[in-house]
Amino acid sequence: MSDPNFDASQGVQQQPASPAVTGHPFQGSAPDYQYPYAASAAHELAPQASESNQIARVVQAEALANSMRKETGVAYLLWFFLGEFGAHRFYLGKTGSAIAMLLIFLISIPLAFVFVGYFGLFAIFIWWIVDAFLIPGWVRAHNDLARRRAYGT
């Protein structure tokens, strides 16, 4: 025996056909039937919506943090091949000291012909060696700052 109001394809109870309503479309009595899971379905959807919004914000923040991320290997390659010009410092956002390093190097090259420039080149060499030990900390600090900025904290 089957219920004529039950639609097996959707698994829900169908409303019995109401009598034809004449006149204004909102006239007549509304059926008293209520979907039995309406309250619980709305209650379950609200947390899912906020959880999905939170997940979307986290994914967006992680993507932003990863786009601003600096790599230690790249910094060391710049340090090794272009360190005397301060390229690794430009890469890591230390622009002021990178410009100073570049200027000292560029001024020291012509002055090396009169032997005064060797002092500048020696200073750049010492600076270059010290930077080798500072690069990992700079990269870590930059990446932490990028993550905090991405999360807005």
How would you describe the overall organization of this protein?
This protein is mainly α and 153 residues long. It has a domain at 68-151. The chain is built from five helices and two strands, in the order ββααααα. The protein has a two-stranded antiparallel ribbon. A hairpin with a 4-residue loop joins β1 (6-7) and β2. α2 packs antiparallel against α5 and α4 (95-111) runs antiparallel to α5 (117-151). It is rod-shaped. The mean pLDDT is 82.
* Order of H and E elements: EEHHHHH
Give the N-to-C terminal Cα separation. Answer: 64 Å
Low-confidence segments, given as residue ranges, are none
Strand tally: 2
Oligomer: single chain
Question: Descriptors for this entry?
Answer:
single chain, 153 residues, mainly alpha, 5 helices, 3% strand
Topology, pairings included?
Blueprint (H helix, E strand, L loop, with lengths): L5 E2 L4 E2 L24 H30 L4 H11 L4 H5 L3 H17 L5 H35 L2
Antiparallel strand pairs: 1-2
Short description:
This protein is mostly helical. Helices cover 64% and strands 3% of the residues.
